[in-house]
Amino acid sequence: MYVIAIGWIYVTLLMAATEENLTAGVLTFALYGVGPLALFLWLFGTPQRRRKRLAREVVDDVVGQDDGADARRDQ
Question: What is the pTM of this model?
Answer without folding.
Answer: 0.60
